[in-house]
Amino acid sequence: MTSTWILVADAARARVFESDRPGGAWTVVSCFSNPDGHAPGRHATTDRAPRVAESVGTTRHAIEPHTSLRDKSTERFARTLCDELERGCSERRCERLVLVAPPRFLGALHGVLDPALRERVSGELHNDFTTLPEPDVRERVLHELRV
Hints:
Number of domains: 1
CATH superfamily: eRF1 domain 2
CATH class: Alpha Beta
Radius of gyration: 19 Å
Strand order of the largest sheet: 3-2-1-6-7
Number of helices: 4
Strand content: 25-35%
Order of helices and strands: EEEEEHEHHEH
Oligomer: single chain
Mean pLDDT: 85
Structural class: alpha/beta
Number of strands: 7
Helix content: 25-40%
Distance between the termini: 14 Å
CATH architecture: 2-Layer Sandwich
Shape: elongated
């Protein structure tokens, strides 16, 4: 029996569904939430930007971080989701994966997928279906990918 896991995610929330056969019923495997996922890009833990001292004299300059806290939060969330997918594959609970996410978050997922997990990806949709109820998600994914 070929079991397919369908990950429907964005930077703030995710659901993993399981389907045992094409066109069959879906069951929810797990749900995830990332409270920092929709924080503004400038969201910071301090009011002041980090400072750096000039090599000569007492002058100090503010510096911008190379990676925003939002991007770090998104990457951390993507790693959490990939860990769940890897666990499911290693426990032989899923053989194929379908990824449904907005393009930006799909890129974050691609950045953390290991090669063995990447080989199991049988389809991708570049859409944000996280706010839709499960029947609507299922209908749209089936229509687009024939899962």
